[in-house]
Design brief:
Elements (H helix, E strand, L loop, with lengths): L9 H11 L7 H18 L8 E8 L7 E4 L6 E5 L20 E4 L6 E8 L2 E4 L9 E4 L1 E4 L2 E3 L14 E2 L5 E4 L2 H7 L11 E7 L8 E7 L6 E8 L4 E2 L5 E2 L8 E2 L7 H14 L3 H20 L42
Parallel strand pairs: 11-12
Antiparallel strand pairs: 1-14, 2-3, 2-7, 3-6, 4-5, 4-8, 5-6, 9-13, 10-11, 12-13, 15-16, 15-17
Helix pairs in contact: 1-2, 1-4, 2-4, 4-5
Length: about 350
């Protein structure tokens, strides 16, 4: 892009920030410091929920599986042997099997829930915990179900889902705080039509990355697809359009719209001046940033859901007191309902 354009990519934002801070450009060590402040500012800006950080996801909920019977010996309480079961067989056209690691099972109508650690074949799987039973189970009924589903890798667990998760039939699933969810569903062992959900976080596995999950209650009995909206942690894009949390390459772009992108420079300058103990300059940059972003907060388009009061035909109702016209002043709730 031209040097006179509004800063767009990382290299242009870097130069703009160095000019604001009166730093020499083209020095590797200075570039490293500059990039760090730009990424700090990028994450600081997105402590607030911005419309441009919205993303869309879809969850495929799995039906429960109860075909056949199972047996568990007391000597091997984690080994489940099935009869007439098809645990390792794919559900037609769906790309996942009837049972898989991470699912849950109950046996013989009991409420105790056991996690599935692995599935070896159509008739053999291993539990993550020993089955607690006084006697061996022989050819008893069982229920396999899945109530826990992985959320997108870029799911912002601080801001979470933006709205209620919905069925295609527009039936709402209310998202509850985890403590309230588990007070209502301590075991969550009876499948049905999901009515509530909560967000949980599993501990890191193989990396330091968080593993957000959504848990549904009751667990689903049918296949269903659930769309939902959330805030993304991919605050930058590479030149190939790949989402990432930080800007690292010269051609990377922040997801902040171009018209508000100079706010990134001002927020980074605020942090930089503050670290230099120059509170006066930090306050100036903060004020400029707030002025710019106030306009960003007030921006709207035709699809904006904020209510507006718009006069008819360029002003109040014309001829309000003429015969056959509606009166200029009315009683009732028309004004409050924004129907005037």
């Amino acid at each position: 892009m031209a040097a006179t354009d509004n800063p767009t990519i990382l290299s242009e934002c870097r130069t703009a920030l160095q000019n604001v801070m009166k730093e020499v450009t083209g020095i590797t060590a200075v570039n490293t410091v500059t990039d760090r402040y730009l990424n700090i500012a990028l994450h600081d800006i997105h402590q607030e929920r911005w419309w441009w950080a919205e993303a869309f996801g879809r969850l495929e909920l799995h039906a429960d599986y109860t075909t056949g019977t199972v047996s568990i010996a007391l000597a091997t309480r984690t080994t489940v042997t099935g009869s007439s079961t098809l645990w390792n067989t794919a559900v037609t056209g769906m790309g996942f099997n009837n049972a898989r690691a991470g699912g849950k099972m109950t046996f013989a109508g009991a409420a105790d829930v056991y996690p599935v650690a692995s599935v070896a074949s159509d008739t053999s799987l291993t539990l993550g915990e020993p089955c607690i039973t006084a006697a061996a189970l022989t050819a008893v009924s069982y229920s396999y179900y899945e109530d826990e589903y992985a959320l997108p890798a870029d799911f912002d667990d601080e801001h979470g889902v933006m709205d209620a998760i919905n069925f295609p039939e527009h039936r709402e699933i209310r998202v509850l705080p985890s403590h309230e969810f588990y007070r209502w569903y301590p075991r969550n062992s009876t499948a049905g039509t999901p009515r509530h959900a909560t967000i949980i976080h599993l501990g890191p596995s193989g990396s330091v990355a968080r593993r957000p999950r959504v848990v549904f209650a009751p667990p689903p009995t049918d296949l269903m697809t659930i769309p939902f909206r959330y805030y993304t942690t991919s605050l930058a894009r590479s030149s190939a359009g790949v989402g990432q949390e930080n800007m690292t390459a010269n051609a990377d772009e922040p997801i902040v719209p171009r018209r508000w992108r100079y706010g990134l420079i001002l927020k980074a300058a605020e942090h930089w001046a503050r670290d230099r103990k120059n509170d006066a300059r930090a306050g100036e940059y903060k004020g400029q940033y707030e002025t710019l972003m106030l306009r960003a907060r007030a921006s709207s388009d035709a699809a904006d859901n904020r209510p507006k009061i718009e006069p008819r035909i360029g002003g109040y109702w014309p001829g309000g007191n003429r015969r056959g016209r509606r009166p200029r002043y009315v009683t009732g709730t028309e004004f409050e309902d924004l129907r005037r």
